Amino acid sequence: MKRLLDDGLEKLTNMILDMASISSNVVEMAIDGYVSGRDVSKDVFRTSNQLRVLEDEVVELGIELIARYQPVAGDLRYIRSCMEIAYGFFRYGRYAYDISQVLNMFGDLSECNKEIVKQTGKKVCEMINISVTAFRNKDVELAKKLELMDDEVDKAYIGFVKQAIENPLSGKKCDMATMLILRYLERIADHATYIGESVKYIVTGDRYHK
Q1: Are the C-beta atoms of 14 and 61 separated by less than 8 Å?
Q2: By CB atoms within 10 Å of each CB, which of 44, 72, 77, 140 scores lowest?
Q3: Are 181 and 117 in contact (CB under 8 A)?
Q4: 89 phi and psi angles, rounded to 5 deg
Q5: Residues 6+ apart with CB under 8 A from 122
Q6: Are 125 and 144 in contact (CB under 8 A)?
Q7: Residue 18 CA to chain centroid, in angstroms?
Q8: How confident is the model over 50-70, as pLDDT tens digits?
Q9: pLDDT digits over 98-134, tens only?
Q10: pTM (2 d.p.)
Q11: Could you please report the per-residue DSSP string of the chain?
């Protein structure tokens, strides 16, 4: 028999999936804008604010469900995790806006080699999609892949920083812009990994922090 709580959980799930789609698109928009040299900061800012509003709505609904139905065990874990995941999607939007601001901060960056941003950005977008699929299907094994992918993103960021430091002849303007964006991508990858950890928590009740 369907419970009254189930309708609320379904609504919560749909809100999270809406946020997932929006946040994935805005990260891709920010990366594409940087690579192609287009100023997309206004659109990214507007979308980032939309994610902030949606995060508030998810939290409000989650608190309402807890207060009204006093869920326990798996239902309570699910509601708590949805609120945490919504925060992760909100952060995607903020980091996407930070990426879109790099062009405004540094000006013309057409002379920079953007290959590492393209490759790392592609991997981070893949992580976002995997985290959403893992959440939708409650797939713990798929969520585990995010930890390994996060290590690869960390390695790309740290490797570039070392390379920039060790090469005094490299263009500092390009180096700084690239380091900033890789740092933002590294943070997005962290949040994707946190979402994967939330999937494990929802399914097993175990908390694991890398």
Answers
A1: no
A2: 72
A3: yes
A4: -65, -40
A5: none
A6: no
A7: 14
A8: 999 999 999 999 999 999 999
A9: 999 999 889 889 899 999 999 999 999 999 999 999 9
A10: 0.91
A11: ---HHHHHHHHHHHHHHHHHHHHHHHHHHHHHHHHHT---HHHHHHHHHHHHHHHHHHHHHHHHHHHHH---HHHHHHHHHHHHHHHHHHHHHHHHHHHHHHHHHH---TTS--HHHHHHHHHHHHHHHHHHHHHHHT-HHHHHHHHHHHHHHHHHHHHHHHHHHH-TTS-HHHHHHHHHHHHHHHHHHHHHHHHHHHHHHHHH------
Whole-number pLDDT of residue 210: 56
Total residue length of the chain: 210
Contact status, residue 201 vs residue 151, Cβ threshold 8 Å: no
Mean pLDDT to the nearest integer, 20-39:
94
The pLDDT value recorded for residue 121 is 95
The residue assigned the tokens 């789609």 is: 21
Side chain identity at 6, as an amino acid letter?
D
pLDDT tens-place string over residues 15-26:
999 999 999 999
Residue carrying the six token digits 């946020």: 19
Evaluate whether 86 touches 106 at the Cβ level (below 8 Å): no
Work out the mean pLDDT of the chain and round it to a whole number: 93
